[in-house]
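Thread: "does anyone have the structure for this chain?"

Original post by V.I.:
We have the sequence but no experimental structure in hand. Need at least a predicted one for the grant figures.
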Amino acid sequence: MRLSALSLSCVAWMGCAHTPEPVAAPPPETAPEVTVSLRILDGGVNEQDMPRSNLALAVIAAEGSRDVTPIGTYLGVCSHETAHPPDLLRANCWWAGAGHHIIVRRQNNRLIVRVAEVDEEAGEGEAQSVLEVGLPAGAELRLVTAPD
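Reply from O.Q.:
Generated one for you, C-alpha cells below.
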C-alpha cells in the first residue's frame, strides 16, 4: 500500500507540475513602405514668355496618407533624369542655356532636396538644400523614377 500511495503522490505531483507552452516570438516589425516621387507641373510662362515648371516632392505612405510639399518654381521645362547613387531622384530644368538640377537624397530618416544652378558655360554650381521632409523610422522607399 505504501508503494501505491507513493506512486499516486508522484502522479499527482507530475500532473500538477506546469510546463509552460512555448511562446512564439512576436512577428518582426515590418518597415513602413513609402513611395516617393518628384512631381513636375506646368507653371505657365513669365512676363518674357519663358516657360516655368512647378516642382513638388510627393511622399505616399502604404496606408494611403499623402504629403505633397512644394519645392519651387523654376524657369524652363523640367524633366526627370536617371538618378545615380547617392541620389534617389533627379530632375533637370533648362531654358536657353541655363537651368537647375533638382536632387533628392536620403539622410537617415529624412529626405533632403537640393538644387544646383547650371549654366552651359560655367557648369554646375554648388547644390543648396531647399527642403527636408521626415520619413517614418526605417522606412523602405519605393521610388517613382524616370524610365531608363
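V.I.: this helps a lot. The first helix runs from residue 2 to 16.
O.Q.: and The CA atoms of residues 10 and 41 lie 81 Å apart.
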